[in-house]
Design brief:
mainly alpha, Four Helix Bundle (Hemerythrin (Met), subunit A), two-stranded antiparallel sheet, globular
C-alpha cells in the first residue's frame, strides 16, 4: 500500500463557468467600446455597440440555464455589467451626442437615468424570488437603453439636431428613469417556450421582422422599443379603467337590489 493511501478530503479550487461569463464579458466590452466611441464622436457605432451588449445579455443567462452553469458569481457579474451596459453607456451616449449643450441640466438628467437603472437592477435582484415571472416591475433597463440607443442612431442617421430634439431627448430620458423605478408592469415574455414547436405563420412573421430590421435598423428598432416602453403605461391605464368600470357595475347592482327591497 502506498504511504498516502489514507483517505483525506481533497481541497479543490472553485472556478467560474467559462461560456456564460464569457458572454457577459463580451457585453461589458461592447458597452465600454460604446463609451470610447462617444468620446471619438462616432455615435452610430456607440449605439450599435449597446445593441450588441443587449444581445450578449439576452443569451448569457439562457445559456447558463441550458448548460446548467448558473452560479451566484455569474448573477452578480451580470448585474454589475448591466449597470455599465444599460445605465452608464446609454446616458453617456445621449450626453455626448446632444445633451452636453444643455450644460448642467444635460448631465444631471443623464445621471438621473444612470441612478434609476442601478436602482432598477438592485430592486430586481432583491425581489427575483417574489415576483410574477410573466411581468417586469418597472421598465427593464435593456429596453430603456434600447430606446435611447435607437433614438440617437435614428436622429444621427437622419442628421436631426435641433433645440427641439435636445428638449425632447432630455424629456425622454427623464421619463425612462421614472418608468424604470416605477411599479408599472411590463410583459417579460418569459412564458414563451423557445424550445417548443411553433406554427409556420410564426416563422414567417419572424422572417418578416428580420427583413424589416435589415431595411432600416434604426427606425424599426426605435419603433419597437417605443412601443414596448408605451405598452406598460397603456396596459396599466386599461387595467385601472377596467377595475373602475367593475366597481361601478357592482355599485349599480347593489343599488338595484336596494331599490327592489324598498319596493
Amino acid at each position: 500500500m502506498p504511504e498516502n493511501s489514507t483517505t483525506q478530503p481533497i481541497n479543490r479550487r472553485r472556478g467560474i463557468y467559462l461560456l456564460p461569463n464569457l458572454l457577459t464579458t463580451a457585453g461589458l466590452f461592447a458597452a465600454f467600446y460604446s463609451i470610447v466611441a462617444v468620446m471619438q464622436e462616432r455615435v452610430s457605432y456607440a449605439a450599435i455597440a449597446i445593441f450588441i451588449a443587449m444581445i450578449c445579455d439576452a443569451f448569457d443567462g439562457r445559456i447558463a440555464r441550458l448548460t446548467h452553469t448558473e452560479s451566484e458569481f455569474g448573477a452578480e457579474y451580470d448585474s454589475l455589467a448591466d449597470v455599465v451596459s444599460f445605465g452608464v453607456a446609454p446616458a453617456l451616449l445621449l450626453y455626448g451626442w446632444l445633451l452636453h449643450s444643455l450644460g448642467k441640466i444635460g448631465w444631471l438628467v443623464c445621471f438621473l437615468y444612470t441612478a434609476a437603472a442601478a436602482l432598477r437592477l438592485a430592486r430586481f435582484n432583491t425581489q427575483i424570488q417574489n415576483i410574477d415571472k410573466r411581468y417586469f416591475q418597472g421598465l427593464p433597463s435593456p429596453a430603456a437603453a434600447g430606446l435611447v440607443a435607437s433614438t440617437v442612431w435614428l436622429c444621427d442617421s437622419l442628421g436631426l439636431q435641433s433645440k427641439f430634439i435636445e428638449i425632447s431627448s432630455a424629456t425622454i430620458i427623464t421619463l425612462l428613469a421614472v418608468l424604470m423605478v416605477s411599479n408599472i408592469r411590463f410583459h417579460s415574455f418569459k412564458e414563451i417556450d423557445w424550445r417548443g414547436r411553433v406554427s409556420f405563420v410564426t416563422i414567417l412573421i419572424m422572417v418578416l421582422v428580420f427583413i424589416a430590421i435589415s431595411l432600416s435598423p434604426p427606425l424599426v428598432l426605435f419603433l419597437f422599443f417605443l412601443a414596448y416602453g408605451a405598452s406598460g403605461p397603456i396596459l396599466t391605464l386599461y387595467a385601472l379603467q377596467k377595475k373602475r368600470l367593475q366597481r361601478l357595475a357592482r355599485r349599480r347592482k347593489r343599488g338595484t337590489k336596494t331599490s327592489k327591497r324598498t319596493d
